[in-house]
Amino acid sequence: MQIISIIAFLITFTASNFAAAQTSERLRAARQIQAITQQDINSIVKPALLNAMLPKERRIAEAVNIVVVVDERIGRVVAFIDNFSQRKIEISTGFLALIGASIDANLIAGKWGYLKEIGEYKNKIANFLRGARREIREGGTPIKPESFAEYVGLPDDQYKKFSKSKEYDYSFSVAMRVMLSFVLAHEYAHHVFNHFENTPASCLNAPLGEDCLKARRAQEDEADDFGVRLNWMLGNNPLFATNYFMIFGLVENGLLSSEHSPSVCRLEKVLDAGIQFSENSDRIVQHLLQQNSEFQKQFKMLKNFRVVLKEQCEAGGLLTDTVVPGLF
């Protein structure tokens, strides 16, 4: 991704509120996000995902039109069939800006060692998303948090120099493409497994009864499994996408529907896949586990955290807004 587009992600996310979206600078930034992300999806992410699918899955997925839309709403991530029977996936520039700001925070934390602060900032983002849910339901306008660089007081000249470096450009681009790969694989699954046709009409509108919630959550689990399977085949470690996955789980389909709330069972499964991938298929992580004692300590904490989630899942603790301890 070109650095001008990376900056656009942050401009679009860190304005004070949603209503400010119509300024010319914000609109230009959103259009830059739209153009560069649509190009990445069409030329890199989508072809890779299609190649990882089984033939019968690919035949359905090839008919899906993926569209990046200029829209400040961070919860516009949705698969659907439109009024013309066209299969579609839509992702808003608001959602992409949120993910971009999170990637930016991780890169800054890794560069300058803000390990304590990145955990606090992720909690702040999670609280913002939870608050956004309530405010949107009540017709309000959520106020977005500052960027991570502002949060930790990083001097502007240091941040600008880092954000214009090849190191930052490469890391940001790879992280965004991996996240897009997991998100789009999940949304593809709703088409591939005909979740629209297989959902009773009585379960299409909120509020949902217990039986409907159970059915819808089962579909989300199936979509998660599909996303993990495709990305495992592509060499994308689920562990790297776990924090972004939690953001996705919080905002998918408008921040409003309870069947998309992240569950301990859902998170534990993705985390377990990431741990298995790291120990068996990721040479970089395996090298770090052999050579870096601090990394070994953090990885052990992550494995212990997964065990706790497993116990909560089996005990029936269905819903949580837990933020995953960060390794990377």
Descriptive overview:
- This is Peptidase U49.
- Keywords: Signal.
- With 328 residues, this protein is mainly α.
- The chain has one domain.
- The protein has 13 helices and three strands; from the N terminus they run H-H-H-E-E-E-H-H-H-H-H-H-H-H-H-H.
- The protein has a three-stranded mixed sheet with strand order 1-3-2.
- The C terminus is likely disordered.
Record the SSE blueprint:
Layout: H1 3-13, H2 24-52, H3 55-61, E1 65-69, E2 77-81, E3 87-92, H4 93-112, H5 115-137, H6 148-152, H7 156-163, H8 166-192, H9 210-233, H10 242-251, H11 264-280, H12 283-291, H13 293-314
Parallel strand pairs: 1-3
Antiparallel strand pairs: 2-3
Helix pairs in contact: 1-2, 1-4, 2-4, 2-8, 4-5, 4-8, 8-9, 9-11, 11-13, 12-13
Brief rundown of the structure:
It is built from 13 helices and 3 strands. It is mainly α and 328 residues long. It has one domain (3-314).
Rg computed from alpha carbons, rounded to a whole number of angstroms: 19 Å
- Return residue spans where pLDDT drops below 50 for at least 5 consecutive residues: 16-21, 318-328
- Count the DSSP helices: 13
Strand count: 3
First-residue to last-residue Cα separation: 21 Å
Number of domains: 1
